[in-house]
Amino acid sequence: MAAAAATAAAAASIRERQTVALKRMLNFNVPHIKNSTGEPVWKVLIYDRFGQDIISPLLSVKELRDMGITLHLLLHSDRDPIPDVPAVYFVMPTEENIDRMCQDLRNQLYESYYLNFISAISRSKLEDIANAALAASAVTQVAKERGSKVPVLHTEIQSASVAY
Q1: In the chain, what's the furthest Cα-to-Cα distance?
Q2: Alpha carbon distance 21, 26 (integer Å)
Q3: What is the mean pLDDT of the chain?
C-alpha cells in the first residue's frame, strides 16, 4: 500500500515538473513574462504531432490562452503570416521539420522565432536553420535562448539558439 502511494506521488511530481517545464518554455524560457499592462505576451505555438502529444495531456486550451498562446498550429499545416507576433516552436528535430522551419524563416511568417526541440538536435541541422535565417535576413528574428534540458515524458526539451 505504501509503495503504491509513493509511486503515485512520484508520478504526480514528474507530471508537475513536466508542466512547469512546458510553461517555462512557452514563456520564452523565463518563469513569467507579462507586458506593461499585466497581460501575457501574445504568441503563437507551432508544434508537430509529437509536441502536441506531449502538451495535450499537461496543459488545457484555457491554460495555453492564459499564457498568451493565441493560436496553436501544427507545423505542417497551411499557416498565414502573422508578422507582429512571436512564434514558439516545439518539435522533433527531423529533417522534414527543419525544412519546414527554414521555409517559415524564408517566408518571414512571424515577428520572432523561439526554437525548442524535443530531442537533441545535430550541429548540422542547427547550421541549416542558421543558413536559412541568414539567407532570409532573419537572423535577428531567431530569438537567442539559453540551452536547457528538461525531462518530459522520457524525452528532453532542448532549447536551441541560432545566432552568429
Answers
A1: 61
A2: 9
A3: 83
Which residues, listed in sequence order, are joined to residue 45 by a DSSP beta bridge?
Answer: 72, 88
C-alpha–C-alpha distance, residues 98 and 110, integer Å: 16
Rounded distance, CA 92 to CA 118, Å? 5
Domain 2-159: CATH superfamily is Sec1/Munc18 (SM) protein, domain 1 (3.40.50.2060)
Kindly indicate the confidence band of residue 72, based on its pLDDT and cuts at 50, 70 and 90.
very high
Centre a 10 Å sphere on the Cβ of residue 106 and count the other Cβ atoms it contains. 14
**The pLDDT of residue 33:** 54
Q: Where are the domains of the chain?
A: 2-159
- What the block records as the C-alpha cell of 97 is 521539420
Q: How far apart are CA 134 and CA 57, in angstroms?
A: 37
The answer to whether 87 and 109 are in contact (CB under 8 A) is: yes
State the pTM of this model. 0.81
Grid cell listed for 113: 522565432
Q: What is the pLDDT of residue 157?
A: 39
Do 160 and 132 touch, CB atoms closer than 8 A?
A: no
CB 42 within 8 A of CB 85: yes
